[in-house]
Design goal:
The structure is a homotetramer of 337-residue chains. Chain A is α/β, with parallel strands linked by helices and 337 residues long. The first copy, chain A, folds into two domains: 2-63, 2-Layer Sandwich (Alpha-Beta Plaits), CATH 3.30.70; 83-332, Aldolase class I (TIM Barrel), CATH 3.20.20. Chain A is built from eleven helices and 14 strands. In chain A, the strands form three sheets. Chain A has an eight-stranded parallel beta barrel, surrounded by seven helices. In chain A, helix 3 packs parallel to helix 11 and helix 6 crosses helix 7. The longest helix of chain A has 17 residues, at 316-332. The first copy, chain A, is elongated, with a radius of gyration of 23 Å. Chains in contact: A-B, A-C, A-D, B-C, B-D, C-D. At the B-C interface, helix 8, helix 10 and helix 11 of B face helix 8, helix 10 and helix 11 of C.
């Protein structure tokens, strides 16, 4: 931590700050520059991160030296984390593809979708039973019935499952049916939900909030790891910007940035970022080329009748074509799919 | 709803869309322009809002004519909603001021703060017992103990209380102790929590998410109203932008915009927007001048020792001074404080 | 400047950096912390600001201690700058109001507008002769003819004038007719234009870019001051965010923030921020309450027929009403209007 | 154009609007819905785009049906535009790579860089002689001397050149030395400069402003085309968002979006988007996988000594490695490099 003093800071003010910092068991190093005096703090910086040093008289600004996260950082664990779920590895050489409908709507539709995405190369089946909808008047999901369909279809077809949880009270239910628990973008800072899934033994797919920095995403993952669950998959799904031609702006740079900062696997959701099915293949291609460990894609056999997000769901045939091109790109960057 | 067709839309595609729309009980009106054909839809537009018409072959874009919210709209209820809580009116001529510490930390500190903000003119005591913190290593709040302090102090001093809820499981607890239930910015789209407080009989203070549009804020309020609770206070607290000199950017325009669109009272939180106590008075002044119905301000008698948000909490004396200037501005715009 | 080293930085890397820094005539101070070693640099920091120290092997990040601007800073000049133009003071106790049509369209319309805004209390007449329009097919301004109208009307009515320049080649022309030269938001980083007006002896009204930080605004002003022209008025006119209910988001916090950082006067343009005339009065009120030194407002006697920005121009009668309420708010914050 | 009326619009108001619209030579079609009456306008929509219909009494909102650009649209010209410059095709199957230093600094450095990037596969040499710098105290470029080096080196090595223009007065100079004229991001809405290069016969590389929507980029290109110069190359170079881990956020979706909307070639600048050389290769890979027609990359043989943007310039060896991986990705998406 570096404390930069105002040009008019008095000797008393400096002593007051030094005393405070040292009372916390840290050492200080005062350095008089030409235009500013600064106080360097030596010791465990996190002790200071909760101290409002900016308001001490004489302080101009405070600059942290270290990142605020620990367990998720590559400094804490230099090697890539690989998560194993029923024979599927996430974070390894093989890029993992999660696919399925936005919402679970009917058993037969889900089964049809699962068979098709599996044969195209997807290994994880996605589908929502609890749906976070902007409008209270939109379809809110089938709940437990949907979870049953998901589990049953996945077992029949031979896939691993991922589904979203929205409420900490639903954890036992979701754990009973799903293999991977998803925290949606709107709940990335629902800290009680994060703590709850931190106590679970199921892997967690944590989506970046549309309004959240990469640092905040890592801090939210830190909530899960610090509660004991190290199996966290991070997901970039588009951030909100001023651009209106896409639903969100896919921050493809987040992939290499997160890979530098953290050991956790990173996947990309091109469907929610684009908001239009026609843009899903180029964005998925970009994500693989940028080095992601996986994709999560919405696929629906009849998007015209979908109960949610029909606009962005791919037809199974288009998904198959996309998988073909992804296979070539994966190979071009030394990966498999 | 207006459906704009692509220049190359075929007769069959147009008929397919018309048939679909009419099968939902709506009427259509096809109008051939010079460069585009459009289909106007007559009838209850909300039936169509869940239909992914954009993906129908031949469709270029779909433009809704109506806003997606109802109960919160001024069209539904033209007169201002005034919320009464134990003798305090929110949404009336008198601008209501909520003040108190960020977190409830100690009984004596809270009591001292309450006495001071009350004597300066605040009528509602704020204080967090459950704290949404970006870092799992930060102070998370005193929980029920904090709620007890809040209720006890408020009764002693003669104030109404507001406190944040983060978990639907805590509703009975929070209802027992607090007069107004706050939904924080990070939970604005925690839809299960919204539904839960929609079933409560306590008024709800709903904060705008830092990256949520005004329309989304109104849709989240619609969740609460549509579940039966019409006592919702909206709160602008700063949005996330590229500007870094403040913690968030106070969207002061939100005040008159929301007053046009909705009948619900609108208050402003200058403390979280600014992120620095020195900016709180000018922002509070701007909010009152723009027509807000209230303010929620963080005040702490010893910010250097605060366990959260020390940087943005006002000293009680500064709060008193600010109230003086707000009183004059309120008068200038035909209000009281 | 603080240079934070990577945890794996070698002794040779540290020496390489130290040598480089000292070769520039600066002193270094290496401080070994628990988790990071840092190098503090003592001396003129601006020498280093052009050095890409981040790419030196072993460097994790570089943190500047000082702001990059000088002449515009309050540290350089602690007292408020007051700009005098033909008897009008900008930056003093009296809040200055600039008003007039978006574009200069016809002599009689301009004269009518000038008379009305003057009688309502405006002292500076605005009007564009060169218009920056998003579309090449929109009205581009009357050019020199418009400038003549502006000068002539202002002299007739007894007002000072401000008008926008878009091209460095037009400076002699604009200087001949106008009292204050405006740099529009889209040209805030048109550095050649900034240098050119820096050589002028006319005051410059510099508008903040819609996506520029306050720091960048101050750096653009620094271009003008460092070329010799110290009479710069800064203008907040709304920034681009994700919110769509207003044309831009008025960053009202910019007013107190700039007043802290700089000695230059700060005015606000509520018309372009709002993009709708109905929101102009509350935003103007907020701006005055937040401490601005002036306003620039679009007024048109017949907005239905305006050749540009008709939606956001106030009728003269509404402008007069607004001035009444602004007068009261100015008084409430210890100013005049 | 669809005009949506307020629920309380009177018959007189509707007639007033209809009369106005028809006076412009357009036809109207009034349609009474359940909750709103709307007026459809039939005819040349651009006539109305300059009319402030939103302020007519009784109007709630106005929704344009058509995009505001024409010449740049794929509707106007369905086939891809291919630009030929001295034997190099831009917009064809082969992805074109522009590379070179940020600023032209010294003849020998430029020559060394040119030789290396050429042998790695770049066909166009980039280098700035006029530099838009945030700070007036930074290196501003060598001016004409730099242009001479650029032309001379390019001829020696056998490359085409691209360089930035900042001032309309410099056009004859830049035209004399360079093959492609670049408009930088900060000048994307410098409309006078756009008009000027619209009169040139040299191809123009138009960079998207960091604050500009894709629609605005297309409107700026429309300025150039409508002045007679159809050889425009569009460039995505990162937009400004709240994310701070990269200098800008590369909007990789812009590539497929622009390819849908326009016939003009689209290239990507990963260097300015990333702001750090380590992120340039993954972003370049993503851009190629998303379907771009070219890249512009900063390369410097000794970034530690670069006079601008040292942090984001690639070493020639790293550029060569990157070209290898891009070659494979280009092939995977059916292109060459």
């Amino acid at each position: 931590m570096i404390i930069v003093l105002r040009p008019d800071a008095t000797k008393e003010q400096i002593e007051h700050i030094v005393k405070k910092v040292e009372s916390l068991g840290l050492k200080t190093m005062v350095s008089q520059g030409v235009e500013r005096t600064i106080i360097g703090v030596i010791g465990k910086e996190d002790i200071l991160q909760v101290q409002p040093l900016e308001i001490y008289p004489g302080v101009e600004k405070v600059m942290p030296v270290l990142a605020p996260y620990k367990l998720v950082s590559r400094e804490f664990k230099p090697t890539d984390t690989i998560i194993e779920v029923k024979g599927v590895s996430i974070g390894s050489e093989k890029i993992v593809v999660m696919a399925g409908p936005c919402s679970i709507e009917r058993y037969d539709l889900l089964l049809e979708t699962a068979r098709k995405v599996k044969s195209a190369g997807a290994s994880i089946l996605r589908g929502g039973a609890f749906k976070p909808r902007t409008s209270p008047y939109s379809f809110q999901g089938l709940g437990e019935e949907g979870l049953k369909y998901l589990k049953d279809v996945a077992e029949k077809v031979g896939m691993v499952t991922v589904t979203e949880i929205m409420d900490p009270r639903d954890l036992p239910l979701v754990e009973r049916y799903a293999d991977i628990i998803q925290i949606g973008a709107r709940n990335m800072q629902n800290f009680n939900l994060l703590k709850e899934v931190g106590l679970s033994r199921k892997p967690v797919l944590l989506k970046r909030g549309m309004m959240s920095t990469i640092k905040e995403l890592l801090m939210s993952a830190e909530y899960i790891l610090s509660n004991g669950n190290f199996n966290v998959i991070l997901c970039e799904r588009g951030i909100r910007t001023f651009e209106e031609s896409t639903r969100f702006t896919l921050d493809v740079s987040a992939v290499p940035v997160i890979k530098q900062l953290s050991h956790l696997p990173v996947i990309v959701d091109p469907s929610h970022a684009a908001g239009k099915w026609g843009l899903v293949p180029p964005l998925a291609q970009a994500a693989v080329a940028a080095g992601c460990d996986g994709l999560i894609v919405e696929v629906h056999p009849n998007p015209e009748e979908a109960l949610s997000d029909g606009i962005q769901q791919l037809l199974p045939e288009r998904f198959s074509e996309m998988m073909e091109s992804l296979r070539k790109i994966a190979q071009a960057v030394g990966r498999k799919i």
